[in-house]
Amino acid sequence: MHADVEAQHAVVIAGGGPTGLMLAAELALARVDVAIIERRSSQEVSGSRARGLHARSLEVLDQRGVVERFTSQGQAVQNVAFGQAPLDLSDFPTRHNHGLALLQERFERILAGWVGELAVPIYRGREVTGFAQDDTGVDVELSDGRALRAQYLVGCDGGRSLVRKAAGIDFPGWDASISYLIAEVEMTGAPAFGIRRDEKGTYAMGKLEDGRVGVVLREERVVTGDAPTLEGLREGLVALYGTDYGLRGATHLSRFTDMTRQAASYRERRVLLAGDAAHVHSPMGGQGLNLGVQDAVNLGWKLAQVVRGVSPDNLLDTYQTERHPVAARALRTTMAQTALSRGDARMDAVRETLTELLRMDGPRKTYAALLSGLDVHYDLGHGHPLLGRRVPDLDLITADGPRRVFHLLHDARPVLLNLGEPGTLDITPWEDRVRSAAARYSGAWQLPVLGAVTPPVAVLIRPDGHVAWVGEGTDQGLHEALRRWFGPPRAT
């Protein structure tokens, strides 16, 4: 494409938002040369975006040993709800039985600081404008006329992803049925704080910490393309409240819709998608940022192994196999949340009925686990209930003293955790890439929703914290699992 190739990297990530930053950290921990292309000149986020993290996102940050950086800057909250029913996680078997109230701007700044410590270069003030891939890599064209060469390109460049479009990946789904204005404003009057509903949707005002007012207004007609204006916001306030409450100005004004789409494929040869580039939906339920972070943690170790020659290229196919269904389910729940936001008498009755159901323990736990990400179960075949699920963060006793399971995952390497007789499981042909840890644990193994499960004798834990193999007294299936996820045995 260009003679002026600025640099070569193993992986180039288009987009330095939450998904791109998390993916860069995962690849850097795996000793992969990765770089980010980010159109913003700084990490500043414009206006209101995501406002917090769910429990599983806190767990994956804990797996990397950095969660305290975030929890120290936010507030633990029970932030999961479906319809008008709050869903309490406080009795869930996890150290993070809650969410975290933390604005996206703060989240990104902390994450970018960590990525900086990992020495990941960020090409700021530039965008990916095109690319061409061949059998050995991708030439990535930048908006300043230069180019980068990479083995793989990952589009983390949002719902309007140029990478997705240029790769020719379809983005099927549903057009918007409603649009909202969201603003942070100054008013001279006394606003009517609280949530209201009518037959078309929800609207609300709330007091912000600095005295400004947060406003969310459903619009009379669906608008998708035009940039919102202060005058349009004023008209919306008058239409819904009968007054503009002395609206003086807005420090932020944007629009969102319930458009719901998902990439038909998360991969086109050497080009992959993650986060909003792969799936967009209504922000109701706060799923977007969390889905993207968890996409990154699933993809990162797989892409690293392929780049380093540890695993064959087809390991990348498991990224879509595992993450596509998770996002599809999230899209379904956000569509349901949008429908429940409408306030005619019939939908009021549906919400009230759902609220009654979700007060029962079984439905509450099921939906709380779904919306918090704690119930994700990758289909790795039949077997023990742990197979394919997140490993619990148990308090272990090791030869070096007490250790938590998550401590073993800080460097993003797979771990064979042996809770039986030491030395009985031989992984010598994989010891260059899989850590073996012997420990004792005598308590119960508890999983969200499922409750207590039969304690295993050993577990093979992937770098993303999901269980790839469960040992129940023998090594049956262990070598097959090692080969499947961590490449062929080392030649002796």
UniProtKB/TrEMBL annotation:
Residues 10-333 form the FAD-binding domain. The keyword Flavoprotein applies. The keyword Transmembrane does not apply. Coiled coil: none annotated. Gene3D superfamilies: 3.30.70.2450, 3.40.30.120, FAD/NAD(P)-binding domain. GO terms for molecular function: FAD binding; oxidoreductase activity, acting on paired donors, with incorporation or reduction of molecular oxygen, NAD(P)H as one donor, and incorporation of one atom of oxygen. Its cofactor is FAD. Keywords: FAD, Flavoprotein. InterPro entries: FAD-bd, FAD/NAD-bd_sf, RIFMO-like. It comes from the Bacteria. Signal peptide: none annotated. Transmembrane segments: none annotated. NCBIfam families: PRK06834.1. This is FAD-binding domain-containing protein.
